């Protein structure tokens, strides 16, 4: 019983920290940008994505495949990969460290890769970096959630 109470206390404290982080000034900047990134990705707006992705982006898919910004964009451009939908689950955590911020959360993705539709539930870690007044994604890492 004592362990259960401690676990509940830590769970509650962790959720408070996530709520505090989500209401921070940086979160108020980045959460709308993250929504814009997702919308832009699913619309196939490549010029819009190029503005949101840093030139040195590292994108690691849930399969473990790693791509540069150029490789990622080329697969979208050729139609080898098409994102149909991406819906983040509630509770994205935002932690800021000066001009770098880390977003963590989970998302449901429907993507077509080489003509095959994949429905994925993923956990992600995403790093944004501020260059002057502009934030850009510098890294994405996703892992499949065991169902």
Commentary on this structure:
By secondary structure, the chain is α+β, with helices and mostly antiparallel strands. The chain has one domain (2-144): Roll (Nuclear Transport Factor 2, Chain: A). The chain has 4 helices and 7 strands. Strands 1, 2, 3, 4, 5, 6 and 7 form a 7-stranded mixed β-sheet that branches. A hairpin with a 5-residue loop joins strand 1 and strand 2. Helix 2 (25-43) packs antiparallel against helix 3. It is globular and about 40 Å long. The chain starts with a helix and ends with a strand.
List the helices and strands and how they pair.
Layout: H1 2-22, H2 25-43, H3 46-52, E1 53-60, E2 66-68, H4 69-78, E3 81-88, E4 93-97, E5 100-113, E6 116-131, E7 134-144
Parallel strand pairs: 1-7
Antiparallel strand pairs: 1-2, 3-5, 4-5, 5-6, 6-7
Helix pairs in contact: 2-3
* SS-derived structural category: alpha+beta
Assess the beta-strand content as a share of residues: 35-45%
Reported for the largest beta sheet, the result is: 7 strands, mixed
N to C succession of SSEs: HHHEEHEEEEE
Annotated CATH architecture: Roll
CATH-derived topology: Nuclear Transport Factor 2, Chain: A
Overall number of structural domains = 1
Give the end-to-end Cα distance, rounded to a whole number of Å.
29 Å
Query: What is the overall silhouette?
Result: globular
Task: Give the C-alpha Rg.
Answer: 17 Å
The percent of residues in helical segments reads 25-40%
Count every helix, treating DSSP H or I runs of 4 or more residues as helices: 4
Averaged pLDDT: 88
